[in-house]
Task: inverse folding
């Protein structure tokens, strides 16, 4: 009876814990690198309790059509997993079946009674083909003054085709917008007639 009580005290369970953070090139939040068009990010929460054995994937999240670092992820930890075991995070970026970025070693995660755990995951480029590592600095354009006076719908489609971005959209002049900076987003400001009124740019 006492053995059962002692064991119960050592084992906590998770109820709705969320793990979130950023995936960074070499762990540096200041590096803004592009990834190949059509790449996918996979972040996994794994049970690494048994030494010298393969880890067990408990939960994973997948984000498709990623564009440029840093990437943000979030994993909902399954309920009723034991805090007495060892867990870790891993991340990889692939294009099709080709690995492009991975983290060199798993990142330990201590799961207890916290509702939110924040962890950044560093990854490194492993692709042999250097064309799989495009640079943001190699983009031919970051703004499109030639679209001023054109229809907003045309401008959105034009920028998507030129950049491969999916996060391109019109914004009515005078509308409130967030002040965060995104390397994969272009806002196209239009008037009430849907005409572009200022050069769209990455923001």
Result:
């Amino acid at each position: 009876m006492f053995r059962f009580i002692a064991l119960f005290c050592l084992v906590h369970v998770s109820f709705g814990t969320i793990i979130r953070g950023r995936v960074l090139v070499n762990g540096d939040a200041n590096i803004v690198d592009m990834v190949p068009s059509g790449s996918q990010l996979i972040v996994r929460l794994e049970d690494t309790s048994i030494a010298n054995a393969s880890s067990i994937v408990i939960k994973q999240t997948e984000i498709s059509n990623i564009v440029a670092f840093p990437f943000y992820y979030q994993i909902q930890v399954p309920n009723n997993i034991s805090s007495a075991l060892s867990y870790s995070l891993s991340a990889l970026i692939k294009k099709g079946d080709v690995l492009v970025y991975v983290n060199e070693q798993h990142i330990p995660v201590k799961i207890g009674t916290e509702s939110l755990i924040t962890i950044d995951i560093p990854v490194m480029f492993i692709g042999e083909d250097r064309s799989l590592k495009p640079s943001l600095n190699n983009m031919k354009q970051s703004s499109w003054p030639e679209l001023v006076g054109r229809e907003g719908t045309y401008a959105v489609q034009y920028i998507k085709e030129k950049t491969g971005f999916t996060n391109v959209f019109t914004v009515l002049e005078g509308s409130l917008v967030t002040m965060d900076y995104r390397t994969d987003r272009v806002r196209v400001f239009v008037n009430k007639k849907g005409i572009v009124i200022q050069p769209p740019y990455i923001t």
Notes: The two ends are 62 Å apart (CA to CA). The longest helix spans residues 152-163. The chain has two helices and twelve strands. Residues 1-10 have pLDDT under 50 and may be disordered.
